[in-house]
Design a protein that fits this description.
Layout (H helix, E strand, L loop, with lengths): L11 H13 L3 H14 L4 H14 L15 H13 L3 H14 L9 H4 L1 H22 L13 H13 L4 H13 L3 H14 L3 H13 L3 H14 L4 H13 L3 H14 L4 H15 L2 H13 L9 H6 L27 E2 L21 E2 L9 H4 L51 H10 L7 H7 L8 H9 L8 H9 L1 H16 L12 H9 L6 H14 L4 H20 L6 H9 L6 H11 L7 H11 L14
Antiparallel strand pairs: 1-2
Helix pairs in contact: 1-2, 1-3, 2-3, 2-4, 4-5, 5-7, 7-8, 7-9, 8-9, 9-10, 9-11, 10-11, 11-12, 12-13, 13-14, 13-15, 14-15, 15-16, 20-25, 21-23, 22-23, 23-25, 24-25, 25-26, 25-27, 26-27, 26-28, 27-28
């Protein structure tokens, strides 16, 4: 279904005037087009419906041929056809189209017209058809419906009232009416209707609808009893096991909840609802990230779930690096927004802060201060120990003036240099305007979970390496959005960290055809992980790579473990300001060895740095709770 609106959209009064002019001239096709536009903007306006009735009369065929359904049909045309079907004595087909429009634009009152809310409609379509329509509405609506969108569903609730009045003992109708009432906040009504439905004809779905209504009413014990009766009706419906387990866990009965979900997994180890719930509950029990990684693997390997699940996002929400940035370290100069005239920093000369060899450390080369400032933390600038990383850069690693790509000669110059390995070390140029625009559109301090962050960063996939490194060295200004205004006013440094994190995630999409072990993306990220300002961003990108690709997990776990060990040693001397952040990164790393996990847990117990409360306050203002849609009849 197409939106059909753009900058040229006319006001409803103008659309209506043009429709009438075309109708008077006998140009029914143009009249239909303008009426569809008017309906899209004012679906309940009486004058629009009066003109639609005139058009139907003038066409001689009820006007249906003027609003055909095609592969992509403008929503206004769909609604116009729905009203004409009802006028032609086919209200059930018209309701189907109105429900489709409601699913397309939930906040618009498509059904708020007299023929939908008339008591006669319930008698004309019958209880089975009414129940089917209510099922479709529930399947298209979030659970619960946001308060702002509930008025748009009020006509369907009126239809439910009318149908229940005419058919007071129809169990399926009562159950679906209860499901709709519960979604729109009419919980006592939902309990009454579901209770009547179970009394009229006990069934599995009736007990499920009753259990959900009772649970929403705060009557958890009775709700669980109803759900257990649903299992008695159908022991093979494992979705009900997952519902029971989730309810028990929400009320602190975690072991009992795990018992229910284990029963479900014994019956079907690959049933999606049970698998999602099991991993979520296991993570709640011990906090080990391996459960979430296993869930991410299951999601990747089983893309055709029965419906959308939010368990992984729920577990990651608000957790450092799993769902958001950590709070900024205390007084870390690396987090200060780069000065507009900072320019290129001179190579550090203090032997206490410089790697002994000019060929072994990132910080020993002239760099842009915004990317790598003079180091003060030896643990974050010491040369890496991997011989595959420490080769000095070649002079031939220069961006091509035509396309910005990195030259890659077939053989390395004398001394074993690899031209790609200096990509993270050379002085970056400012990014292109297009690169800055893309970065502004996606950078955010929070994400649903690491695989989702990886998927979002694909928007940077076509940027060349010059642009990506340029974004690190020259972070774009904060966007003129709600996020940008909040960050500019309260925590400008957080925006710089967002830029670095999302740019490094973009690096994961650079030359993905290259094998990981020898790839440009790995080498650049591992090298960036040695620079204090971008250590956490580069490591998070590596950790994210491990989440989405099991084959790279041993390599990433080793890199993270090495950095964690260096940080821990420096932390003992009080030289590391981001130890807590890197510890949380380690805790989010798949397949990290037990000793490193224990070390990370120790570091993560360091008292929270000032700023944690600020970050949480910002995220509360910027994020809305994730409300999944659960399509597919029959909805509970």
């Amino acid at each position: 279904m197409a939106e059909g609106t753009d900058d040229r959209a006319l006001p409803v009064t103008e659309e209506l005037a043009r429709a009438r002019t075309a109708l008077d001239a006998g140009d029914l096709t143009h009249a239909a087009g303008h009426l569809a536009g008017a309906l899209a903007r004012a679906p309940t306006m009486p004058e629009v419906h009066e003109t639609l009735a005139r058009l139907a009369t003038a066409s001689g065929s009820g006007g249906l041929d003027l609003f055909p359904l095609q592969h992509h049909t403008f929503v206004g045309a769909v609604v116009a056809r729905a009203h004409l079907l009802a006028a032609a004595g086919r209200p059930a087909e018209g309701l189907d189209l109105l429900v489709a429009a409601s699913a397309h634009a939930p906040g618009t009152n498509w059904a708020g017209v007299p023929w939908v809310t008339s008591p006669d409609l319930a008698e004309r379509i019958g209880p089975d058809q009414a129940a089917r329509v209510l099922m479709q509405v529930c399947a298209a609506a979030p659970d619960p419906v946001p308060p702002a969108d509930r008025a748009a569903l009020a006509p369907y609730l009126t239809l439910a009232h009318n149908a229940v009045t005419v058919h007071p003992e129809h169990a399926l109708l009562l159950g679906t009416a209860s499901a709709l009432a519960r979604r729109v906040g009419e919980v006592p009504l939902a309990v009454r209707w579901a209770t009547r439905g179970v009394r009229a004809a006990p069934s599995k779905m009736g007990e499920v609808w009753l259990g959900y209504a009772l649970r929403s009413a705060g009557r958890t014990r009775e709700g669980l009893a109803a759900l257990r009766r649903a299992v008695d009706h159908d022991p093979d419906d494992l979705a009900v096991y997952a519902d029971i387990a989730g309810t028990l866990a929400d009320h602190g009965r975690l072991e009992e909840a795990l018992g229910w979900i284990e029963q479900a997994l014994v019956r079907n180890p690959s049933f999606d609802c049970a698998v999602h719930t099991a991993h979520r509950l296991r993570f709640q029990r011990d906090g080990e990230v391996r459960h979430l990684v296993a869930l991410a693997d299951f999601i990747r390997d089983n893309p055709d779930d029965s419906h959308e699940h939010a368990d992984l996002a729920e577990c990651c929400r608000g957790r450092p690096w799993l769902g958001q940035l950590t709070p900024p370290p205390t007084a870390d100069p690396a987090l200060a927004p780069p000065s507009a005239n900072s320019g290129i920093a001179s190579p550090p000369t203090d032997p206490s802060t410089t790697s002994p060899s000019t060929d072994s450390g990132v910080a020993s080369r002239p760099t842009d201060r915004a990317l790598v400032s003079p180091p003060t933390d030896p643990a974050l600038v010491s040369p890496p120990t991997d011989p595959a990383i420490v080769s000095p850069p070649a002079e031939s690693d220069v961006a091509s003036p035509s396309n910005g790509s990195v030259a890659r000669p077939e053989s390395s110059p004398a001394g074993g240099a690899d031209p790609v390995r200096s990509a993270a070390r050379r002085v970056p140029s400012p990014p292109s305007a297009e690169a800055a625009r893309r970065l502004r559109e996606l950078a955010h301090p929070a994400w649903p979970h690491p695989p989702a962050a990886y998927d979002t960063a694909v928007a940077l996939a076509t940027l060349d390496l010059t642009d990506l490194l340029g974004l690190l060295a020259h972070p774009p200004e904060t966007p003129q959005t709600a996020l940008g205004r909040v960050l500019s006013g309260q925590d400008p440094a957080l925006w710089v960290r967002c830029v670095r994190v999302w740019t490094c995630l973009g690096l994961l999409h650079h030359r993905t055809d290259e094998p990981w072990a020898s790839s440009t993306r790995r080498r650049v990220l591992v090298e960036l992980a040695q620079a204090a300002e971008v250590t956490e961003a580069a490591l998070f990108a590596l950790v994210t790579a491990a989440w989405v690709d099991p084959a790279v997990r041993p390599d990433v776990a080793r890199v993270v473990a090495e950095r964690l060990t260096a940080v821990a040693e420096a932390a003992q001397a009080g030289r590391v300001s981001m130890a807590v952040s890197l510890a949380h990164l380690a805790l989010a790393t798949p397949d990290l060895d037990p000793d490193s996990l224990a070390l990370a847990r120790t570091l993560a117990r360091v008292p929270a740095r000032p700023g944690r409360g600020v970050l949480r306050a910002l995220l509360r203002r910027l994020l809305r709770p994730f409300r999944p849609r659960l399509p597919g009849p029959p909805p509970p």
